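Known limitations

Structure tokens in this collection are predictions and should be treated as such. Users comparing against experimental data should check residue numbering before alignment. To illustrate the layout, the record for NAD(P)/FAD-dependent oxidoreductase is reproduced below. The input appears on top and the generated tokens appear beneath it.
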Amino acid sequence: MNTYEVAVIGGSAAGLSAALVLSRARRRVVVLDSGSPRNQPARHMHGFLSRDGVPPADLVAAGRDEVARYGSELVDAVVTDVIPNGTNGFWVITVDGRRFAARRLLVATGLRDELPAIDGLADRWARDVLHCPYCHGWEVRDQQLGVIGGTPNAVRYAQIVRQWSHDVVYFTPTGSLTAIERAELVARAIGIVEGDVRRVVIEHDRLHGLEMTDGRAVPRDALFVPPRFVPNSGLLARLGCELDDDGWPAADSTGLTSVAGVWVAGNVANPRAQVITAAGEGSTAAIAINADLVAEDVRDALHHRAIARASN
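Generated tokens:
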């Protein structure tokens, strides 16, 4: 039987950071990972102190090596279900039918990015179509930048992108801007292109610009897109965790959900968490999980001691 004290579902920054802390606390840990991280298309990650510019895959590989050195087990598998085992913990079930028992769970399954339905946009994702200026703004600084608007807070997002270039164009559906938003964009010399975007234009495997449905072509070197973030919270829903209308779990400052014994960390609960943030959240959750296990160990020890005394 595969029995552990903690099962970590998701083996990127949040999950591996938690596994590292827990394994160093001498807990028996299994990390189950599907091998499809959100940042897989990105060539490099940025803003992670001492790891700036490192390919995301290299960070994961190093993290897996570190976790394995402390005795955690790494399992490449897709988790399809998590079920309370009826006594003290949970069953974690994988797509190939394997079953793992754990006293506590950390769900770090991340999120997925839903992009606007613009022809060719998804093919350039994390290359020259970007979502986070703090992650990628420096690399495209002073270039011709575009921002896809039309969503809540998109104007504010464009104002942030403006920090990295004096040449920014905001693309938005006709009639979507308020007078105040238009004035704010004009005040900082952000160009406004109103209408619908038909497709991204690629030349020599590089973004060349955008083509509008009315035939206009607007040259751009890179494009920032605020995607719709969708949490991978299906497992949490099946466990009965409290979720909001968009699927985001309710959790306390340590990541503890509304279901006892279940924690979350990283993008599955925090859509704005960068890699370094997710790693920190994993560490925070791990410390809370270990403390919870210690409290249970104390209760169990007292119970067994009382039984021993009663039998003498």
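For this record: Residues 275-311 form the longest helix (37 residues). The chain has a mean pLDDT of 94. Please report discrepancies through the issue tracker.
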